[in-house]
Protein backbone atom coordinates (compact mmCIF):
# COMPACT_ATOMS: atom_id res chain seq x y z
CA UNK A 1 0.00 0.00 0.00
CA UNK A 2 2.80 2.36 0.89
CA UNK A 3 4.42 1.78 -2.50
CA UNK A 4 1.10 2.42 -4.23
CA UNK A 5 0.64 5.73 -2.35
CA UNK A 6 4.11 6.89 -3.43
CA UNK A 7 3.40 6.03 -7.05
CA UNK A 8 0.01 7.77 -6.88
CA UNK A 9 1.56 10.94 -5.37
CA UNK A 10 4.22 10.96 -8.08
CA UNK A 11 1.53 10.66 -10.76
CA UNK A 12 -0.47 13.53 -9.26
CA UNK A 13 2.71 15.69 -9.23
CA UNK A 14 3.44 14.87 -12.88
CA UNK A 15 -0.13 15.63 -13.97
CA UNK A 16 -0.12 18.88 -12.01
CA UNK A 17 3.22 19.91 -13.54
CA UNK A 18 2.01 19.11 -17.04
CA UNK A 19 -1.22 21.09 -16.53
CA UNK A 20 0.70 24.07 -15.10
CA UNK A 21 3.22 24.12 -17.93
CA UNK A 22 0.46 23.61 -20.47
CA UNK A 23 -1.52 26.54 -19.02
CA UNK A 24 1.57 28.74 -19.01
CA UNK A 25 2.29 27.96 -22.61
CA UNK A 26 -1.32 28.64 -23.56
CA UNK A 27 -1.56 31.88 -21.57
CA UNK A 28 1.90 33.10 -22.42
CA UNK A 29 4.65 33.00 -19.84
CA UNK A 30 5.54 36.31 -18.21
CA UNK A 31 7.86 38.16 -20.56
CA UNK A 32 11.08 39.75 -19.44
CA UNK A 33 10.87 43.56 -19.30
CA UNK A 34 11.70 45.02 -22.68
CA UNK A 35 14.83 47.08 -23.06
CA UNK A 36 14.06 50.84 -23.33
CA UNK A 37 14.90 50.81 -27.05
CA UNK A 38 12.52 47.95 -27.73
CA UNK A 39 9.79 49.30 -25.43
CA UNK A 40 9.91 52.60 -27.26
CA UNK A 41 9.96 51.08 -30.73
CA UNK A 42 6.96 48.91 -29.82
CA UNK A 43 4.82 52.05 -29.56
CA UNK A 44 5.38 53.07 -33.18
CA UNK A 45 2.24 52.56 -35.23
CA UNK A 46 0.05 52.08 -32.16
CA UNK A 47 -3.60 52.86 -32.93
CA UNK A 48 -6.05 54.15 -30.37
CA UNK A 49 -9.73 53.72 -31.22
CA UNK A 50 -12.14 56.62 -30.79
CA UNK A 51 -13.98 54.62 -28.13
CA UNK A 52 -10.93 54.94 -25.84
CA UNK A 53 -10.94 58.76 -25.99
CA UNK A 54 -13.34 60.66 -23.74
CA UNK A 55 -14.54 63.16 -26.38
CA UNK A 56 -15.57 62.58 -30.02
CA UNK A 57 -12.65 61.96 -32.37
CA UNK A 58 -11.73 59.75 -35.30
CA UNK A 59 -9.21 57.86 -33.17
CA UNK A 60 -5.47 58.41 -32.87
CA UNK A 61 -2.26 56.92 -34.23
CA UNK A 62 1.36 57.03 -33.10
CA UNK A 63 3.40 58.03 -36.13
CA UNK A 64 6.86 57.71 -34.59
CA UNK A 65 8.51 56.54 -31.38
CA UNK A 66 12.25 57.08 -31.02
CA UNK A 67 14.53 56.59 -28.02
CA UNK A 68 16.85 59.54 -27.48
CA UNK A 69 19.99 58.57 -25.54
CA UNK A 70 21.14 60.76 -22.68
CA UNK A 71 24.44 61.32 -24.49
CA UNK A 72 22.80 62.60 -27.68
CA UNK A 73 24.17 66.08 -28.47
CA UNK A 74 21.63 68.74 -27.50
CA UNK A 75 19.58 66.41 -25.29
CA UNK A 76 19.49 67.97 -21.80
CA UNK A 77 16.66 65.75 -20.55
CA UNK A 78 18.29 62.37 -20.07
CA UNK A 79 17.22 59.21 -21.91
CA UNK A 80 13.61 59.30 -23.08
CA UNK A 81 11.28 57.98 -25.74
CA UNK A 82 9.87 60.71 -27.98
CA UNK A 83 6.40 59.71 -29.20
CA UNK A 84 4.64 61.75 -31.85
CA UNK A 85 1.28 61.24 -33.49
CA UNK A 86 -2.07 62.69 -34.44
CA UNK A 87 -5.62 62.58 -33.16
CA UNK A 88 -8.02 62.36 -36.09
CA UNK A 89 -11.09 64.61 -36.25
CA UNK A 90 -14.69 63.54 -36.69
CA UNK A 91 -15.15 66.07 -39.49
CA UNK A 92 -12.77 65.08 -42.29
CA UNK A 93 -12.36 68.77 -43.16
CA UNK A 94 -11.02 69.61 -39.70
CA UNK A 95 -7.27 69.41 -39.02
CA UNK A 96 -5.67 66.73 -36.87
CA UNK A 97 -4.49 67.42 -33.33
CA UNK A 98 -0.75 66.84 -33.35
CA UNK A 99 0.67 65.59 -30.06
CA UNK A 100 3.94 64.60 -28.45
CA UNK A 101 4.47 62.43 -25.38
CA UNK A 102 7.90 62.02 -23.80
CA UNK A 103 8.55 58.88 -21.76
CA UNK A 104 11.67 59.05 -19.57
CA UNK A 105 13.52 55.81 -18.95
CA UNK A 106 13.95 56.89 -15.30
CA UNK A 107 10.29 57.74 -14.68
CA UNK A 108 9.17 59.34 -11.42
CA UNK A 109 5.60 58.04 -11.94
CA UNK A 110 4.21 61.55 -12.54
CA UNK A 111 3.21 63.55 -15.63
CA UNK A 112 2.98 67.17 -16.74
CA UNK A 113 0.82 68.34 -19.62
CA UNK A 114 2.16 71.63 -20.99
CA UNK A 115 0.01 74.41 -22.44
CA UNK A 116 0.49 76.52 -25.56
CA UNK A 117 0.54 80.23 -26.31
CA UNK A 118 -1.24 82.84 -28.42
CA UNK A 119 -3.82 81.03 -30.50
CA UNK A 120 -1.66 77.87 -30.52
CA UNK A 121 -0.86 76.26 -33.88
CA UNK A 122 2.67 75.15 -32.91
CA UNK A 123 3.40 71.76 -31.37
CA UNK A 124 4.27 71.97 -27.67
CA UNK A 125 6.95 69.28 -27.54
CA UNK A 126 7.22 68.94 -23.77
CA UNK A 127 11.01 68.89 -24.10
CA UNK A 128 11.32 72.56 -23.14
CA UNK A 129 11.24 74.20 -19.69
CA UNK A 130 7.94 75.27 -18.20
CA UNK A 131 7.05 78.96 -18.34
CA UNK A 132 8.91 81.03 -15.71
CA UNK A 133 10.77 78.03 -14.27
CA UNK A 134 14.46 78.34 -13.30
CA UNK A 135 17.18 76.62 -15.34
CA UNK A 136 17.65 72.91 -14.76
CA UNK A 137 14.03 72.23 -13.81
CA UNK A 138 12.76 70.83 -17.10
CA UNK A 139 10.04 68.38 -16.02
CA UNK A 140 11.30 65.75 -18.44
CA UNK A 141 14.80 66.02 -17.01
CA UNK A 142 13.34 65.53 -13.53
CA UNK A 143 11.68 62.28 -14.59
CA UNK A 144 8.16 63.45 -15.43
CA UNK A 145 6.31 62.16 -18.45
CA UNK A 146 5.61 65.33 -20.43
CA UNK A 147 3.03 65.92 -23.14
CA UNK A 148 1.67 68.67 -25.34
CA UNK A 149 -0.19 69.38 -28.57
CA UNK A 150 -0.55 72.04 -31.25
CA UNK A 151 -4.02 72.98 -29.96
CA UNK A 152 -5.73 71.24 -32.86
CA UNK A 153 -4.40 73.18 -35.86
CA UNK A 154 -1.16 74.16 -37.57
CA UNK A 155 -0.18 77.81 -37.94
CA UNK A 156 3.22 79.48 -38.07
CA UNK A 157 1.67 82.98 -38.11
CA UNK A 158 0.93 84.47 -34.66
CA UNK A 159 -2.79 85.02 -34.03
CA UNK A 160 -3.82 83.41 -37.33
CA UNK A 161 -7.37 82.36 -36.47
CA UNK A 162 -8.54 81.07 -39.85
CA UNK A 163 -8.56 77.57 -38.34
CA UNK A 164 -11.67 78.62 -36.41
CA UNK A 165 -13.75 78.76 -39.60
CA UNK A 166 -14.09 75.00 -39.07
CA UNK A 167 -16.34 74.40 -36.06
CA UNK A 168 -14.61 71.25 -34.78
CA UNK A 169 -11.23 72.92 -35.06
CA UNK A 170 -12.57 75.92 -33.13
CA UNK A 171 -14.03 73.75 -30.37
CA UNK A 172 -10.78 71.80 -30.13
CA UNK A 173 -8.87 75.05 -29.64
CA UNK A 174 -11.52 76.32 -27.24
CA UNK A 175 -11.17 73.47 -24.75
CA UNK A 176 -11.50 69.93 -26.13
CA UNK A 177 -7.92 69.38 -27.32
CA UNK A 178 -6.85 69.44 -23.67
CA UNK A 179 -8.73 66.26 -22.77
CA UNK A 180 -8.25 64.54 -26.11
CA UNK A 181 -4.49 64.94 -25.80
CA UNK A 182 -4.52 63.78 -22.18
CA UNK A 183 -6.58 60.68 -22.88
CA UNK A 184 -4.38 59.56 -25.76
CA UNK A 185 -1.20 60.28 -23.80
CA UNK A 186 -2.36 58.26 -20.80
CA UNK A 187 -3.03 55.21 -22.97
CA UNK A 188 0.49 55.53 -24.35
CA UNK A 189 1.90 55.88 -20.83
CA UNK A 190 0.10 52.72 -19.71
CA UNK A 191 1.35 50.83 -22.76
CA UNK A 192 4.93 51.78 -21.95
CA UNK A 193 5.02 51.41 -18.16
CA UNK A 194 2.05 49.15 -17.40
CA UNK A 195 0.51 51.80 -15.14
CA UNK A 196 -0.87 55.32 -15.14
CA UNK A 197 0.88 58.26 -13.42
CA UNK A 198 0.32 58.55 -9.69
CA UNK A 199 0.21 62.35 -10.05
CA UNK A 200 -0.93 64.31 -13.08
CA UNK A 201 -0.30 68.04 -13.51
CA UNK A 202 -1.01 70.73 -16.09
CA UNK A 203 1.15 73.85 -16.40
CA UNK A 204 1.28 76.83 -18.75
CA UNK A 205 1.39 80.58 -19.18
CA UNK A 206 -0.83 82.96 -21.17
CA UNK A 207 -3.02 80.72 -23.38
CA UNK A 208 -1.38 77.84 -21.51
CA UNK A 209 -2.53 79.43 -18.25
CA UNK A 210 -6.04 79.53 -19.66
CA UNK A 211 -5.72 75.86 -20.57
CA UNK A 212 -4.53 75.05 -17.05
CA UNK A 213 -7.68 76.64 -15.62
CA UNK A 214 -9.79 74.73 -18.15
CA UNK A 215 -8.06 71.51 -17.08
CA UNK A 216 -9.05 72.10 -13.46
CA UNK A 217 -12.60 73.34 -14.10
CA UNK A 218 -13.71 71.26 -17.11
CA UNK A 219 -11.71 68.05 -16.51
CA UNK A 220 -11.08 67.85 -12.75
CA UNK A 221 -10.96 64.06 -12.73
CA UNK A 222 -7.88 64.10 -14.98
CA UNK A 223 -5.52 66.29 -12.91
CA UNK A 224 -4.15 66.60 -9.39
CA UNK A 225 -2.70 70.09 -9.70
CA UNK A 226 -2.22 72.98 -12.13
CA UNK A 227 0.20 75.88 -12.56
CA UNK A 228 -1.58 78.94 -13.99
CA UNK A 229 0.73 81.66 -15.32
CA UNK A 230 -0.61 85.09 -16.43
CA UNK A 231 -3.74 83.40 -17.82
CA UNK A 232 -5.63 84.42 -20.95
CA UNK A 233 -8.66 82.86 -19.32
CA UNK A 234 -11.33 85.16 -20.80
CA UNK A 235 -10.01 85.26 -24.37
CA UNK A 236 -13.15 86.77 -25.89
CA UNK A 237 -13.33 89.65 -23.40
CA UNK A 238 -9.58 90.09 -23.46
CA UNK A 239 -9.51 90.53 -27.22
CA UNK A 240 -12.50 92.87 -27.22
CA UNK A 241 -10.67 94.87 -24.56
CA UNK A 242 -7.62 94.85 -26.82
CA UNK A 243 -9.77 96.11 -29.69
CA UNK A 244 -10.89 98.98 -27.45
CA UNK A 245 -7.19 99.62 -26.69
CA UNK A 246 -6.32 99.74 -30.41
CA UNK A 247 -9.22 102.04 -31.24
CA UNK A 248 -8.01 104.51 -28.61
CA UNK A 249 -4.52 104.51 -30.12
CA UNK A 250 -5.70 105.05 -33.68
CA UNK A 251 -8.63 107.40 -33.01
CA UNK A 252 -8.89 110.71 -34.87
CA UNK A 253 -6.54 109.65 -37.65
CA UNK A 254 -3.86 108.64 -35.16
CA UNK A 255 -3.80 111.82 -33.06
CA UNK A 256 -4.09 109.69 -29.94
CA UNK A 257 -1.22 107.38 -30.86
CA UNK A 258 1.62 107.25 -28.33
CA UNK A 259 5.03 106.80 -29.94
CA UNK A 260 7.75 104.58 -28.42
CA UNK A 261 9.64 107.67 -27.29
CA UNK A 262 6.56 109.14 -25.62
CA UNK A 263 5.86 105.80 -23.93
CA UNK A 264 9.45 105.78 -22.68
CA UNK A 265 8.89 109.28 -21.27
CA UNK A 266 5.82 108.06 -19.37
CA UNK A 267 7.73 105.03 -18.08
CA UNK A 268 10.79 106.96 -16.91
CA UNK A 269 8.66 109.65 -15.26
CA UNK A 270 6.75 107.07 -13.23
CA UNK A 271 9.96 105.34 -12.22
CA UNK A 272 11.28 108.66 -10.95
CA UNK A 273 8.07 109.13 -8.95
CA UNK A 274 7.55 105.64 -7.56
CA UNK A 275 10.60 103.38 -7.90
CA UNK A 276 12.13 103.99 -4.47
CA UNK A 277 8.87 103.91 -2.52
CA UNK A 278 9.51 100.18 -1.96
CA UNK A 279 12.88 101.00 -0.41
CA UNK A 280 15.05 99.86 -3.33
CA UNK A 281 16.28 101.90 -6.33
CA UNK A 282 15.94 99.00 -8.76
CA UNK A 283 13.75 100.36 -11.60
CA UNK A 284 10.81 98.30 -10.32
CA UNK A 285 7.61 99.76 -8.91
CA UNK A 286 6.76 97.05 -6.40
CA UNK A 287 3.47 98.56 -5.23
CA UNK A 288 1.78 100.68 -7.94
CA UNK A 289 -1.18 101.19 -5.62
CA UNK A 290 0.91 103.01 -3.01
CA UNK A 291 -0.97 106.28 -2.26
CA UNK A 292 2.29 108.20 -2.52
CA UNK A 293 2.65 106.84 -6.06
CA UNK A 294 -0.93 107.32 -7.23
CA UNK A 295 -0.97 110.87 -5.84
CA UNK A 296 1.65 111.70 -8.46
CA UNK A 297 0.54 109.50 -11.35
CA UNK A 298 -3.06 110.73 -11.14
CA UNK A 299 -1.86 114.10 -12.48
CA UNK A 300 -0.83 112.45 -15.75
CA UNK A 301 -4.51 111.93 -16.56
CA UNK A 302 -5.34 115.63 -16.50
CA UNK A 303 -5.49 118.09 -19.38
CA UNK A 304 -4.35 121.13 -17.47
CA UNK A 305 -1.18 122.69 -16.09
CA UNK A 306 -1.08 120.30 -13.11
CA UNK A 307 0.07 117.59 -15.53
CA UNK A 308 3.85 117.85 -16.00
CA UNK A 309 3.66 115.54 -19.02
CA UNK A 310 1.20 117.73 -20.93
CA UNK A 311 2.48 119.71 -23.91
CA UNK A 312 1.88 123.50 -23.59
CA UNK A 313 -1.61 124.22 -24.88
CA UNK A 314 -2.30 120.50 -25.31
CA UNK A 315 -0.94 120.35 -28.87
CA UNK A 316 1.60 117.74 -29.92
CA UNK A 317 5.07 119.22 -29.62
CA UNK A 318 7.38 116.22 -29.82
CA UNK A 319 8.59 113.31 -27.74
CA UNK A 320 9.05 115.19 -24.47
CA UNK A 321 5.34 115.67 -23.76
CA UNK A 322 1.80 114.42 -24.44
CA UNK A 323 -0.92 116.17 -26.40
CA UNK A 324 -4.47 116.28 -25.09
CA UNK A 325 -5.45 113.55 -27.57
CA UNK A 326 -2.64 111.35 -26.21
CA UNK A 327 -3.70 112.09 -22.64
CA UNK A 328 -7.16 110.87 -23.66
CA UNK A 329 -5.52 107.62 -24.75
CA UNK A 330 -3.76 107.27 -21.40
CA UNK A 331 -7.11 107.81 -19.68
CA UNK A 332 -8.74 105.14 -21.84
CA UNK A 333 -6.01 102.59 -21.13
CA UNK A 334 -6.11 103.44 -17.44
CA UNK A 335 -9.88 102.80 -17.31
CA UNK A 336 -12.08 99.72 -17.36
CA UNK A 337 -13.64 98.72 -20.69
CA UNK A 338 -17.37 98.08 -20.40
CA UNK A 339 -18.78 95.68 -22.99
CA UNK A 340 -22.43 96.63 -22.49
CA UNK A 341 -23.71 93.07 -22.05
CA UNK A 342 -22.76 89.92 -20.15
CA UNK A 343 -20.86 86.93 -21.55
CA UNK A 344 -19.55 83.61 -20.17
CA UNK A 345 -18.55 83.69 -16.53
CA UNK A 346 -20.86 86.63 -15.87
CA UNK A 347 -18.30 89.06 -17.27
CA UNK A 348 -19.28 92.43 -18.71
CA UNK A 349 -15.97 94.30 -18.86
CA UNK A 350 -12.19 94.17 -19.02
CA UNK A 351 -9.78 95.63 -16.50
CA UNK A 352 -7.53 98.66 -16.97
CA UNK A 353 -3.98 98.44 -18.35
CA UNK A 354 -0.88 99.11 -16.20
CA UNK A 355 0.21 102.15 -18.21
CA UNK A 356 0.74 104.21 -15.04
CA UNK A 357 2.29 101.36 -13.03
CA UNK A 358 5.87 101.55 -14.28
CA UNK A 359 5.31 99.25 -17.24
CA UNK A 360 7.46 99.87 -20.30
CA UNK A 361 5.19 98.49 -23.07
CA UNK A 362 8.25 97.36 -25.03
CA UNK A 363 7.65 93.77 -26.17
CA UNK A 364 3.88 94.32 -26.41
CA UNK A 365 4.44 97.72 -27.94
CA UNK A 366 2.15 100.52 -29.08
CA UNK A 367 3.36 100.30 -32.67
CA UNK A 368 5.77 102.28 -34.81
CA UNK A 369 3.33 104.51 -36.68
CA UNK A 370 0.10 106.45 -35.97
CA UNK A 371 -1.97 104.60 -38.58
CA UNK A 372 -2.85 100.94 -38.80
CA UNK A 373 -2.73 98.38 -41.60
CA UNK A 374 -5.57 96.04 -42.51
CA UNK A 375 -4.73 93.24 -41.95
CA UNK A 376 -2.24 94.05 -39.17
CA UNK A 377 1.44 94.30 -40.08
CA UNK A 378 4.70 94.41 -38.16
CA UNK A 379 4.69 98.15 -37.32
CA UNK A 380 1.15 98.00 -35.86
CA UNK A 381 0.38 98.02 -32.14
CA UNK A 382 0.59 94.60 -30.52
CA UNK A 383 -2.93 94.68 -29.06
CA UNK A 384 -4.44 95.25 -32.49
CA UNK A 385 -3.18 91.91 -33.80
CA UNK A 386 -4.90 89.31 -31.54
CA UNK A 387 -8.10 91.35 -31.37
CA UNK A 388 -8.29 91.61 -35.16
CA UNK A 389 -7.82 87.85 -35.54
CA UNK A 390 -10.65 87.04 -33.12
CA UNK A 391 -13.03 89.56 -34.65
CA UNK A 392 -12.19 88.51 -38.19
CA UNK A 393 -12.35 84.71 -38.22
CA UNK A 394 -14.05 83.80 -34.94
CA UNK A 395 -16.76 86.38 -34.24
CA UNK A 396 -17.74 87.71 -37.68
CA UNK A 397 -16.16 85.04 -39.94
CA UNK A 398 -15.42 87.93 -42.30
CA UNK A 399 -11.80 87.81 -43.46
CA UNK A 400 -12.01 91.28 -45.01
CA UNK A 401 -13.41 93.21 -42.06
CA UNK A 402 -11.81 96.40 -40.71
CA UNK A 403 -11.95 95.59 -36.99
CA UNK A 404 -10.95 99.12 -35.94
CA UNK A 405 -13.63 100.91 -37.94
CA UNK A 406 -17.24 101.58 -36.90
CA UNK A 407 -18.31 101.64 -40.55
CA UNK A 408 -21.57 99.60 -40.66
CA UNK A 409 -20.55 97.90 -43.91
CA UNK A 410 -16.77 97.40 -43.72
CA UNK A 411 -16.20 97.77 -39.99
CA UNK A 412 -17.04 96.10 -36.69
CA UNK A 413 -20.05 97.46 -34.80
CA UNK A 414 -19.85 95.74 -31.42
CA UNK A 415 -23.53 95.75 -30.46
CA UNK A 416 -24.50 94.05 -33.73
CA UNK A 417 -22.53 90.95 -32.73
CA UNK A 418 -23.69 90.50 -29.12
CA UNK A 419 -25.32 87.09 -29.63
CA UNK A 420 -22.32 85.68 -31.48
CA UNK A 421 -19.91 87.06 -28.88
CA UNK A 422 -21.85 85.30 -26.12
CA UNK A 423 -21.79 82.06 -28.12
CA UNK A 424 -18.05 82.34 -28.77
CA UNK A 425 -17.27 83.08 -25.11
CA UNK A 426 -18.95 79.85 -23.99
CA UNK A 427 -16.61 77.89 -26.27
CA UNK A 428 -13.37 79.82 -26.07
CA UNK A 429 -13.23 81.16 -22.50
CA UNK A 430 -12.31 79.62 -19.16
CA UNK A 431 -13.96 82.23 -16.96
CA UNK A 432 -15.79 79.97 -14.51
CA UNK A 433 -14.67 80.08 -10.87
CA UNK A 434 -16.52 76.87 -9.97
CA UNK A 435 -13.67 74.64 -8.84
CA UNK A 436 -15.75 72.55 -6.46
CA UNK A 437 -15.02 69.21 -8.13
CA UNK A 438 -11.30 69.90 -8.40
CA UNK A 439 -11.11 71.09 -4.80
CA UNK A 440 -13.15 68.16 -3.49
CA UNK A 441 -10.79 65.62 -5.06
CA UNK A 442 -7.80 67.37 -3.46
CA UNK A 443 -6.64 69.33 -6.51
CA UNK A 444 -4.30 72.30 -5.99
CA UNK A 445 -3.75 75.51 -7.98
CA UNK A 446 -0.74 77.83 -8.12
CA UNK A 447 -1.48 81.04 -10.05
CA UNK A 448 0.80 84.00 -10.75
CA UNK A 449 0.91 87.24 -12.74
CA UNK A 450 3.48 90.01 -13.15
CA UNK A 451 2.64 93.65 -12.47
CA UNK A 452 4.36 94.77 -15.70
CA UNK A 453 2.42 92.61 -18.15
CA UNK A 454 1.38 94.72 -21.15
CA UNK A 455 -0.01 91.76 -23.13
CA UNK A 456 -2.62 90.63 -20.58
CA UNK A 457 -3.16 93.25 -17.93
CA UNK A 458 -2.50 91.89 -14.42
CA UNK A 459 -5.70 93.58 -13.28
CA UNK A 460 -7.56 90.97 -15.33
CA UNK A 461 -6.17 88.24 -13.07
CA UNK A 462 -6.83 90.33 -9.97
CA UNK A 463 -10.46 90.37 -11.13
CA UNK A 464 -10.45 86.59 -11.46
CA UNK A 465 -9.00 86.13 -8.01
CA UNK A 466 -11.54 88.53 -6.48
CA UNK A 467 -14.35 86.47 -8.03
CA UNK A 468 -12.80 83.32 -6.58
CA UNK A 469 -12.66 84.90 -3.13
CA UNK A 470 -16.30 85.98 -3.48
CA UNK A 471 -17.26 82.37 -4.21
CA UNK A 472 -15.17 80.59 -1.57
CA UNK A 473 -13.95 83.22 0.95
CA UNK A 474 -10.21 83.78 1.26
CA UNK A 475 -9.84 81.26 4.07
CA UNK A 476 -11.42 78.41 2.11
CA UNK A 477 -9.66 79.39 -1.11
CA UNK A 478 -6.27 79.19 0.61
CA UNK A 479 -6.85 75.48 1.19
CA UNK A 480 -6.48 74.71 -2.52
CA UNK A 481 -5.34 77.84 -4.41
CA UNK A 482 -2.51 80.34 -3.95
CA UNK A 483 -2.11 83.46 -6.08
CA UNK A 484 1.14 85.42 -6.40
CA UNK A 485 1.84 88.80 -8.01
CA UNK A 486 5.38 89.57 -9.14
CA UNK A 487 6.58 93.20 -9.45
CA UNK A 488 8.64 93.92 -12.55
CA UNK A 489 7.63 90.70 -14.31
CA UNK A 490 5.89 91.04 -17.67
CA UNK A 491 4.48 88.52 -20.11
CA UNK A 492 7.01 85.76 -19.56
CA UNK A 493 9.81 88.33 -19.50
CA UNK A 494 10.38 91.80 -18.10
CA UNK A 495 12.68 94.09 -16.15
CA UNK A 496 12.58 91.33 -13.55
CA UNK A 497 12.43 88.08 -15.50
CA UNK A 498 11.16 86.10 -12.54
CA UNK A 499 11.92 82.37 -12.55
CA UNK A 500 10.36 80.36 -9.74
CA UNK A 501 10.09 76.62 -9.14
CA UNK A 502 6.32 76.53 -9.52
CA UNK A 503 6.23 72.83 -10.37
CA UNK A 504 8.31 71.92 -7.33
CA UNK A 505 6.03 73.96 -5.06
CA UNK A 506 2.91 72.41 -6.60
CA UNK A 507 4.25 68.86 -6.33
CA UNK A 508 5.20 69.39 -2.68
CA UNK A 509 1.67 70.64 -1.96
CA UNK A 510 -0.10 67.80 -3.80
CA UNK A 511 2.23 64.95 -2.94
CA UNK A 512 3.39 65.87 0.56
CA UNK A 513 0.73 68.30 1.78
CA UNK A 514 3.23 71.15 2.15
CA UNK A 515 1.22 74.29 1.37
CA UNK A 516 3.35 77.01 -0.27
CA UNK A 517 3.86 80.38 1.34
CA UNK A 518 6.42 82.95 0.28
CA UNK A 519 8.53 81.67 -2.64
CA UNK A 520 11.74 82.96 -4.23
CA UNK A 521 12.40 84.08 -7.81
CA UNK A 522 15.68 84.50 -9.62
CA UNK A 523 16.11 87.04 -12.42
CA UNK A 524 16.70 85.16 -15.68
CA UNK A 525 17.54 88.18 -17.84
CA UNK A 526 20.72 87.48 -19.79
CA UNK A 527 21.12 90.36 -22.25
CA UNK A 528 24.10 92.75 -21.95
CA UNK A 529 21.70 95.48 -20.83
CA UNK A 530 20.57 93.36 -17.87
CA UNK A 531 23.95 91.96 -16.84
CA UNK A 532 23.90 93.91 -13.57
CA UNK A 533 20.64 92.28 -12.44
CA UNK A 534 21.01 88.78 -13.88
CA UNK A 535 20.78 86.33 -11.01
CA UNK A 536 19.29 88.75 -8.50
CA UNK A 537 16.62 87.29 -6.26
CA UNK A 538 13.35 88.53 -4.79
CA UNK A 539 10.66 87.04 -2.59
CA UNK A 540 7.52 86.06 -4.49
CA UNK A 541 4.68 87.19 -2.28
CA UNK A 542 1.17 85.82 -1.86
CA UNK A 543 -1.32 88.35 -3.28
CA UNK A 544 -1.88 91.15 -2.38
CA UNK A 545 1.48 91.42 -0.59
CA UNK A 546 4.61 92.81 -2.27
CA UNK A 547 8.35 92.76 -1.48
CA UNK A 548 9.67 95.73 0.52
CA UNK A 549 13.40 96.35 0.96
CA UNK A 550 14.40 96.24 4.64
CA UNK A 551 18.11 95.56 4.22
CA UNK A 552 21.19 97.64 5.08
CA UNK A 553 20.93 101.37 4.49
CA UNK A 554 24.06 101.24 2.36
CA UNK A 555 21.93 99.70 -0.42
CA UNK A 556 24.79 98.32 -2.44
CA UNK A 557 23.90 96.54 -5.66
CA UNK A 558 24.59 93.19 -4.01
CA UNK A 559 22.29 94.06 -1.10
CA UNK A 560 19.50 95.27 -3.39
CA UNK A 561 19.79 92.08 -5.44
CA UNK A 562 19.42 89.70 -2.47
CA UNK A 563 15.98 88.35 -1.54
CA UNK A 564 16.97 88.06 2.13
CA UNK A 565 16.86 91.88 2.36
CA UNK A 566 13.11 92.01 1.58
CA UNK A 567 9.93 91.18 3.42
CA UNK A 568 6.47 90.57 2.00
CA UNK A 569 4.15 93.30 3.19
CA UNK A 570 0.81 94.96 2.49
Q: What general form does the structure show?
A: globular
Quickly count the helices: 15
Largest beta-sheet characterization:
13 strands, mixed
What does the radius of gyration come to? Answer: 28 Å
Q: Roughly what is the average pLDDT, rounded to an integer?
A: 93
* β-strand amount: 15-25%
User: Helix content range of the residues, please?
Assistant: 25-40%
- Give the termini distance in whole angstroms: 95 Å
Looking across the biggest beta sheet, what order are the strands in? 1-2-3-4-6-5-7-8-11-12-15-14-13
The computed structural class is alpha/beta
Low-confidence stretches: 1-31
Defining traits:
alpha/beta, disordered N terminus, two-stranded antiparallel sheet, single chain, 17 strands, 570 residues, 15 helices, globular, 13-stranded mixed beta sheet
Amino acid sequence: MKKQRVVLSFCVFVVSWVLTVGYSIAAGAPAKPLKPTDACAALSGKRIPASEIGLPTGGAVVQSAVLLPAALPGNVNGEFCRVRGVIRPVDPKAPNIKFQVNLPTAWNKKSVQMGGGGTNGVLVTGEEPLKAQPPGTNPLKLGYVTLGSDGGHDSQVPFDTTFALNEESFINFGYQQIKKTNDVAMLIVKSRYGMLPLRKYFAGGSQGGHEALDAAVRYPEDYDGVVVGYPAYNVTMMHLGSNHFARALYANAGKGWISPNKMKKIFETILADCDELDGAPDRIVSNPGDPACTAKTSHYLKKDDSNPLRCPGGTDQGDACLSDAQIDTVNTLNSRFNLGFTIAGGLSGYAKWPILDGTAFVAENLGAKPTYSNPPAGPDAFQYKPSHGTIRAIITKNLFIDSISDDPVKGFVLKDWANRIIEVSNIMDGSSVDMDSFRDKGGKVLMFHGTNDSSITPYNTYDLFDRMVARYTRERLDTFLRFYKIPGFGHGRGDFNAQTDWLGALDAWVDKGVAPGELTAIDGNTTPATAATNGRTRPVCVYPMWPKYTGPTTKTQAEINDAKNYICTK
